[in-house]
Structures are given as C-alpha cells and as structure tokens.
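Example 253.
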Amino acid sequence: MRLRVNDIVFNYGNTNILNEVCLDAFPGEILGILGPNGSGKTTLLKCINRILSPKQGTIALDGADVERMSRIDMAKRIGFVPQNSVNENCTPTVYEVVLMGRRPYVSLDYREADREMAWKAMEEMDIKHISSQRFDRISSGQAQRVLIARAIAQDVEMLLLDEPTSNLDVKYQIDVMRAIDQQVRAKNIGACAVVHDLDLAMRFCDKVVLLHEGRVLDAGKSKDVLNPDNIRVAYGVESVVDNVYGRDRIMIM
Ligand SMILES: Nc1ncnc2c1ncn2[C@@H]1O[C@H](COP(=O)(O)OP(=O)(O)O)[C@@H](O)[C@H]1O
Ligand SMILES: [Mg+2]
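Predicted structure in complex with magnesium ion:
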C-alpha cells in the first residue's frame, strides 16, 4: 500500500505546527521521519493516523482519501506504535496487549485464529516468554517490542512507529530496527518510523523525510538527505559523514 501525504497544514490553536508537509511511503521500504525535538514528527504521525485532523491537505492510501474511510477500515490497514503508551489505569498482560491488535477484526469475542495471530506476532518479536507478565511491569525495551507485536497482530499494510528505539540500550535498538526491517521485507508492508539516531536512520531507513520547524527541509534517499549541510540547518550541529567498514557513519563534531 502506498501512503501519500499531500500539503498537510496543522495548527494547535493559533500556533502553526506543520506547514505544507508532503511525503510518500511505499511497500517494502522503511521511511525515516527525522527532525529536532518539537519539529512536528509526532504531530505528523497523528495526522496520518487520524488522531488529529489537519486543517488543510490530504492523506491517501493507494489513492483513497482516509477522510472517507471508517476507523475500522483504517485500523485494518495502518498500525500505530505510539511513543509512550503505558496506561496507568489498566494492567493487562503482554498477551492481552498483543491480542488487542485483533480488535478491528472481531465483532463479539476473539476467535481461535485471532489468538493464533497474537501468538505468532509474539514469536516474531521474541516476547513469548513474557506473555503472562503485566505490561506495566516489563522493561521499556520489552514494552516497545510488545507494542510492535500488537501492530503486527493487527495485520496492517503500513506501520507508523513513534521513536521505536528511544530509551533502548544499543543492542535493543538494533534488535528493534532489525525486527521492523524484517517485517517490512518479509511481508512487503511499509513503515514510517520516527528515528532520532542519525546512524540508525542511515543504516535502516531506505528513505528519510527531514523536518525542520514544521516543514520538510529535505526528503529522499537516506544517504543523500543526511548530509552535513542538512544536519547543520536542522539540528544546528556540525558533522562529518565517513565510511567505516563499508557503512556510512555520521559523526557529530
Ligand atoms: N497538545 C498540544 N497542544 C499544543 N501544542 C502542542 C501539543 N502537542 C505538541 N505541541 C507542540 O507542537 C510542536 C510539535 O510537537 P511534536 O509533533 O510532538 O514534535 P516532535 O515529535 O517532532 O518532537 C511542539 O512545539 C509542541 O510543543
Ligand atoms: Mg515526538
């Protein structure tokens, strides 16, 4: 499924947050959404997922405007992995959280097939061994994997991930990006992921959209966009891009 965001404008009250933002995301690719804190990345994902309504512009899935889709149809096509989502008032187990991914498909109660899909998603994210633990009592790295498993169980064509690697140690960061990468390639689905680490973006994102003050500063192949000029404008830091062991690495000076 192709996701097209065209000329989105979004304001919180009188404050403009997103201005004429465009992006295209394709099956089989990870699109990185990058930009400094407050540049509008989370707001953009929420607009795509219709948690927020843009003031102007359109969002289309394979050419069909999402405004004309039901919430349930959207949930069968787009899975959202939010940044922080431990709900203090609810204490489900890991398995129950993953099973919630099947909600868009059930009318009364989960079927055996739904439970099987939840188990398969947990297997793919390597969390079966913690299935009966309370979601609010696992580590943030594990919680991140649980939320991705929920989106996998949802059987969607596009994953939206808000900072899936934040708060994770280096091993978990790579593991989570690899898991996303594997899902995208194996199932030929698309992913839009907010990534802060420029090296992780360079390594795992096929393309990136670089936001700066609510506008797209540049978009395209990761190695074209993540250059010292763009990094200086977006983040206000000097950098050097070097090739280490055959991989482009960004060193912030
Ligand atoms: N609920 C809100 N009400 C008003 N302003 C908000 C709200 N949420 C976010 N903002 C503002 O919108 C801007 C973009 O926020 P956000 O999309 O969360 O940025 P990012 O995810 O890139 O860090 C920030 O300046 C932030 O303060
Ligand atoms: Mg954010």
